[in-house]
């Protein structure tokens, strides 16, 4: 009975929060800064780094998915952890098609558990993801940057939104530039952050359209180096029943290096969206410069652009929550219907 009334009052609080939520122009949200948890969770960065390093030592192939996960989080509803949410009816962002290869959710849970032990109820899942993304990048010998924190977690995860908001691999330069611009990101951010493709893998299905009958004349995408296209066709047979995996930066998929730009310059970018960086004067100038100088400014630029990407001030702003379990929302709000308690309270697990 005591438990019941506790849950009941929790529900009432949650309903209140639900109504207070979602003012899309919440004033005063600008709290992102380095060291946001200095007082409230002083060992946060240490905990995240320790677990990230442990994971990278045994499963370095998770670096790519974890970096990409932060990108996906930020591009749908701003960086507010909604990419992490599970939906009982499989309608969350992570169920959308572009998710395909999103992996590593269990790593975020692992970090969250450790962080909750040290400082319960303080650190958002979105901040944990942003910090993990930095630490796995650094662990792959990539750049290190100061992560700004102070995000709050959103309560809504919507598959359709993910479908519309994530840029597809076949996007042209106009779509890419606009997609970045829409999120307050520059053309430079676009070319710099695309360099994230220096690590990780892709499914064949993300680019096979470029390999077979691209223009309807039985040919490959003319913007792709023909020798490279041939190699890719071998890895991705046309009628393959399996969706094979391909290294995006062959030979150094586990090293965050500058070879991505050399590849693009040689017309060996895997996706149309990579190759498209040659179709704009500014992005082309940047990548040619990086290719010629062995990426003289890439690491510094990447850190700056990651901070820019992490700034997204979309909702929930200061109205969000500090989620206790990164995969479970406190209240799922159906935007079209108002508050809607879908998530059984039992999902919180033992308290
Ligand atoms: C500019 C628009 C972008 C497009 C169209 C795009 C598209 C893709 C696609 C289609 C894949 C392969 C998914 C699969 O088939 O498994 C991929 C993988 C990846 N992307 Fe992007 N991406 C973009 C930007 C970014 C950004 C900004 C980052 C991070 C800074 C990033 C990091 C990654 C990483 C690390 C992987 C490898 C994932 C793995 O190893 O599983 N991408 N991207
Ligand atoms: C780029 O793609 C968009 C969306 O598919 C399309 O509307 C536009 O015409 C394309 N632009 C160019 C220059 O090809
Ligand atoms: C290539 O595409 C064209 C136009 O869509 C089609 O007529 C043709 O049959 C295709 N060829 C092959 C080998 O699939
Ligand atoms: C949200 O509301 C819309 C419109 O009433 C409805 O079609 C949809 O099924 C609802 N979604 C969920 C997850 O309850
Ligand atoms: C999900 O997003 C789409 C597109 O913005 C919207 O039409 C739909 O109502 C949303 N679904 C829910 C359950 O809010
Ligand atoms: C990890 C994950 O949730 N993957 C899903 C991505 O989307 C496809 C297609 O909708 C689902 O089948 C996967 O389960």
TrEMBL record:
**Main location per UniProt?**
secreted
Q: Which cysteines are joined by disulfide bonds?
A: 41-119, 74-79, 125-326, 204-236
**GO terms for biological process?**
hydrogen peroxide catabolic process; response to oxidative stress
Matches recorded under InterPro entries = Haem_peroxidase (IPR002016), Haem_peroxidase_sf (IPR010255), Peroxidase_pln (IPR000823), Peroxidases_AS (IPR019794), Peroxidases_heam-ligand_BS (IPR019793), Secretory_peroxidase (IPR033905)
Q: Which family does it belong to?
A: Belongs to the peroxidase family. Classical plant (class III) peroxidase subfamily.
Q: Name the residues that bind heme b.
A: 197
- Describe the function of this protein: Removal of H(2)O(2), oxidation of toxic reductants, biosynthesis and degradation of lignin, suberization, auxin catabolism, response to environmental stresses such as wounding, pathogen attack and oxidative stress. These functions might be dependent on each isozyme/isoform in each plant tissue.
- Protein name as annotated: Peroxidase
- This entry's Enzyme Commission designation comes to 1.11.1.7
Q: Return the cofactor note field.
A: Binds 1 heme b (iron(II)-protoporphyrin IX) group per subunit.
**All residue ranges annotated as the Plant heme peroxidase family profile domain in the record:** 31-330
Keywords assigned: Calcium, Disulfide bond, Glycoprotein, Heme, Hydrogen peroxide, Iron, Metal-binding, Oxidoreductase, Peroxidase, Secreted, Signal
The subcellular location is: Secreted
Keyword Disulfide bond included in the entry's annotation: yes
The keyword Calcium is assigned to this record:
yes
**Active-site residues, record numbering mapped to chain:** 72 (proton acceptor)
